[in-house]
Each structure stands twice: as structure tokens, then as C-alpha cells.
Amino acid sequence: MNGTVTEARALPAARARLRLSRAARQNIVSYLFLAPYLSLFAVFVIAPVVAAIYLSGTYYNMLQPPRWVGVSNYRLLFLDDDVFLIAVSNTLTFAVITGPLGYAISFALAWLINRVRFKTPYTLAFYTPSITSAIAMSVIWRYVFSSDRYGLLNTLLMSTGILSEPFPWLLDKDTILPVIMFVSLWMSMGTNFLVFLAGLQTVPTELYEAARVDGIQSALQEVWYVTLPMMRPQLLFGAVMAIVGSFSVFQVAIQLAGLPSPLYAGHTIVAHLYDYAFIRFEMGYAAAIAVILFVFTFLLGRTAMRVFSEE
């Protein structure tokens, strides 16, 4: 009796394994095509994330083997490292302002350019700053915001009588972060801008004609009721890219304000990570900073996916 019951219970499991093996054989070609990508993804994405999480709980100076210290690095970050808290504040301020603003400007410019006849010159004009080296652009903007009387902005303001003496734009703690935001926004018309422009060109014109028949009269109503719902995939991609870009600001900040910046007014999380990783060689502490940054971007990315999900 017991043997019969055992065989009866084992029969569905055997059938399930048979179905799985049959499905695996049928999809073997698909798995082979996926194998190169999955291998590279595991080696260059998953493995570094796992290694960073492990190293964040160690003291590691690259000369000695990692020594496990538990949550000490995280405790130091949030309780004893005042510079890190300043970096978090600066990065969050930067992300809250430049992220949504750059996102909206990218979409607005793409929408306007999509409505004109000759799109290529305008597209090239707005996209070019994003493909230019951040270092080269920072050199130009350092000349614009130079603190002496030869800086272009100071020259203009002094010639018009607004200023009586040069203002230290890149040395004053109240203006360093706004200058970094301004330059970053100027360079932000990159991938998002092209993705939005491509997405706008894929919206069927028949939908706009049907919308006008249904009573939509203005261009803004077309955008709200037709364009945005049809561009959910592009809007999601742009949101994720905007989040990653705003939290990873580094090159522009250090080229404009230096490392460290005056009174850490332009210090960001990535700059703090770079300081401990490649100047002090405290890799465990730097890994803890990287994990915190990963958590920020991951949670915000998941939020963006929920907002723009088509379900």
C-alpha cells in the first residue's frame, strides 16, 4: 500500500521533469544564442556587484588580503563621515533638480524638433555637446566662469554695471553646485534626446487624426492623450538613464570645482568613492560607498519602472 502511494506521488514529479527536459531540448538553440550574452553579463555585471557587496564588509587596501569588519564601513559612513553626508546632500540636490529638468527639456526639445521640417541641423546642434568630452567642455566653461576679470561672465556683468568686481563663481560655496548643474544640463541632450525623438517619429499619424475627430484641439492635448501613452517604453528608458546620469555626476564636477572642491560644495558620491578608491586605496570603504549608490539608483529605477509600466 505504501509503495503504491509513493509511486503515485512520484509520478507527477517525474512527468514535470520530463516536460522540463523536453522544453530544454526544444529551446537548446535559444539557450546557445543567449549563452554569450549571459556569460558576459554574469562576468562583468553580476560578479562585480557581488564582489562589491562582499568587499563593503571588509578592510581592503590592495596590499593585504581583505579583512572582515562587518558593518563597520557603513557605520563610519553614516555616523562619522561628515564629508560623505555632504556628498549625499549635494548628489540628491543635483539629482532632484537636474534629473527631472533635463528629462523634461530633452522631451520638449525632441517634440519641438519633430514638428519642424528640417530636423537634422537642430538635432545635431542639440546632440553635439553630449558627445564632446566632459573635460574639454569643462575647460571652456571654466573660462566662462573664471573668477578673475577675464572670465567671460564676469566681463559681461562688469561691463553692464551689474558687478563692480569679479565674482568667484567656482570658489564660492553658494555658486559651485548651481554652476555644475547648469553645465550638466547643457550637456544632457544626449541619449534621452535621441530616444525621445525616435519615439515621437514612431507614433502613427492616424492616432492624431482619430484624436482630432474625437474632439482633441490643442497640441498639448495630443501630447497628453496620444503621444505620452504611446511612448511608455521610451519614457521608461529615458527615466532610468536620467536617474543613473544624475547620480553618477563626477567628471564635470571635479573639472569645474576640483577634488576636493572648496568646502566640499561640489563634492558628490562618486567623487567621494573615487577619493577613497584611487587616492587613499581603501577599497573596502569605497565598496561600501558603491553599494549605497547602487541601492539609490536601483530603488529609483524600480520606481520609474512602476510609473511607466504598461501594465
What this model shows, in words?
The protein is mostly helical and 311 residues long. The chain has 2 domains: 1-41; 82-308, MetI-like (MetI-like fold, Orthogonal Bundle). Helices cover 74% and strands 1% of the residues. The protein has helices spanning 2-26, 28-55, 72-80, 82-114, 119-131, 134-144, 152-159, 176-186, 191-202, 205-213, 219-230, 232-247, 251-257, 269-279, 283-308; strands spanning 58-59, 67-68. It has a two-stranded antiparallel ribbon with strand order 1-2. Strand 1 (58-59) and strand 2 (67-68) form a beta hairpin. Helix 2 crosses helix 15 (283-308) and helix 4 (82-114) crosses helix 14 (269-279). The chain is flat and about 85 Å long. The two termini are 50 Å apart. The mean pLDDT is 84.
Outline of this structure?
This protein has 311 residues and is mainly α. Helix content is 74%, strand content 1%. It has helices at residues 2-26, 28-55, 72-80, 82-114, 119-131, 134-144, 152-159, 176-186, 191-202, 205-213, 219-230, 232-247, 251-257, 269-279, 283-308, and strands at 58-59, 67-68.
